[in-house]
Structure formats: structure tokens, C-alpha cells
């Protein structure tokens, strides 16, 4: 099985606590953190460095770092309207469409090359994040991780701890597919006693001219926010493009 040396592996659950608004964001308080966005159950996790990480560990790193999602056909649409604006990252060579009024935050990247989060101004568990990690020479395309079904099953089964006694976090794959070199995965996670969290991800690979990088775009919201945020989050993730 292909392995990556000196790569970081994610073990815990994600949080947006370490994000601060981007300098590109105009607002009255440029130093405000994302703590008010209920970091306890949000998404970008802590990282521990390991001497050698195999393909399965890297998939799990991708998963928790920015959870995943399967894309219904509607999510393949790239609708642009007055309700959205295009965020372009010229340095990292991607663009994504976010709702008007959503904030942009830059993460303290420990083990990541770059982390950017997009979130509504009101207090919410909903958010979308883009995490970028460097890859070793063995990883030249998404199929280096295996087919999308294998990738998705490894990701979700590695997160599921419902079999433990007492039961831990439950995770279940909803759907997955591959399109134009990007893996789309949808699943849900639920900690005992907490609301179910739905996760949507688009995972792709691109080169910066020196080495390949893995882009993991993840949107999430909790069950109670489905009516308000499900469609918005799905469309944001689906709008991700390399430039």
C-alpha cells in the first residue's frame, strides 16, 4: 500500500476556533475569531505528527480535517446570482462561490499548507472550509488513494466508533461519486447525545508547479439547520473550481 513519509495525521474532531477573519474581509472587527460559531462541534481538528503515514491514514486525515459529502445531481450546477459572490484565491489557485454576507476566515495551519473557512455572520454550526495539504511523489491523482467507493468507505469506517462500549461517535456513508478528477462524498456523524451533523466534501488534487497538493472542501450543518443551510452549503461545496 502506498505510504507518505513525514506526513501529519488527524485524530480528533474538527473545530473552527483557531480561525480569524481574512484581511480581505471588510468589517468592523478584523480580529474577531470564530469562537462564537460553536467551535466545540465545528470542524477542523487537531493534528499529531507521525513518522510514517499510509494511504488509509491520509484518507482519515482528509476526512476529519474537512469532513465529506456526496453530491446530488443538482450540486453539479454552477449557478451564479446576485445572492452569491465569487471568492478567488490566486495564490492557491482555486475559486468558490459563497453566499453574500458570509465571512471569510484564515486558519492557523498546523500541518496544512492552507486552511480557509466560510461561515454565516449569525451564530451557526454551518460552515464550509478548504484545507490544502502537500502530497508525496507517490500520489499523482485521486486514484492513488483507490477508487472513490474504497476511499469513501475507508474514510467513514475510520471515523465510526459506534461499535465501542460505551458507544462513541457514529458515522455513516450516504453517497459518493467521482467526476472530473474530484471525489464527492456525503456522510453524517453523530456524537452520543448530540445533533446529527451532515458533511459534504469535494476532494481533488492539483500541482503548484513543484509538488501535488490535496484540496479538501467540506461543508457541514446540523440536523436542526437543514431547512436554512443545507442547500446553501451544498451549493458552495459544489461550486469549487481550480483556476
TrEMBL record:
Signal peptide bounds: none
GO cellular component, one term: photosystem II oxygen evolving complex
Top-rank taxon, per record: Eukaryota
Gene Ontology annotations of biological process type: photosynthesis
Any one GO molecular-function label of the UniProt entry: calcium ion binding
Record-linked InterPro entries: Mog1/PsbP_a/b/a-sand, PsbP_C
Entry-linked Pfam families: PsbP
PsbP C-terminal domain sequence ranges: 83-242
Annotated protein name in UniProt: PsbP C-terminal domain-containing protein
Organism: Sphenostylis stenocarpa
Amino acid at each position: 500500500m502506498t505510504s507518505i513519509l513525514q506526513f501529519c495525521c488527524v485524530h480528533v474532531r474538527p473545530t473552527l476556533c483557531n480561525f480569524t477573519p481574512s484581511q480581505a474581509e471588510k468589517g468592523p472587527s478584523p480580529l474577531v475569531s470564530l469562537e462564537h460559531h460553536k467551535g466545540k462541534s465545528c470542524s477542523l481538528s487537531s493534528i499529531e505528527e507521525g513518522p510514517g503515514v499510509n494511504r488509509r491514514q491520509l484518507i482519515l486525515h482528509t476526512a476529519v480535517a474537512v469532513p465529506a459529502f456526496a453530491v446530488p445531481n443538482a450540486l453539479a450546477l454552477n449557478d451564479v446570482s446576485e445572492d452569491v459572490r465569487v471568492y478567488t484565491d490566486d495564490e492557491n489557485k482555486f475559486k468558490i462561490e459563497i453566499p453574500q454576507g458570509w465571512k471569510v476566515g484564515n486558519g492557523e495551519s498546523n500541518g496544512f499548507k492552507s486552511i480557509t473557512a466560510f461561515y454565516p455572520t449569525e451564530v451557526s454550526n454551518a460552515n464550509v472550509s478548504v484545507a490544502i495539504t502537500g502530497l508525496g511523489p507517490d500520489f499523482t491523482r485521486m486514484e492513488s488513494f483507490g477508487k472513490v467507493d474504497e476511499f469513501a468507505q475507508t474514510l467513514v469506517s475510520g471515523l465510526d466508533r459506534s461499535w465501542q462500549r460505551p458507544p462513541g461517535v457514529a458515522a455513516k456513508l450516504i453517497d459518493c461519486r467521482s467526476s472530473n478528477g474530484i471525489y464527492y462524498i456525503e456522510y453524517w456523524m453523530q456524537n452520543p447525545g448530540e445533533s446529527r451533523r451532515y458533511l459534504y466534501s469535494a476532494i481533488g488534487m492539483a500541482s503548484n508547479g513543484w509538488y501535488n497538493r490535496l484540496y479538501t472542501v467540506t461543508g457541514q450543518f446540523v440536523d436542526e439547520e437543514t431547512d436554512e443551510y443545507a442547500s446553501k452549503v451544498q451549493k458552495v461545496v459544489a461550486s469549487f473550481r481550480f483556476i
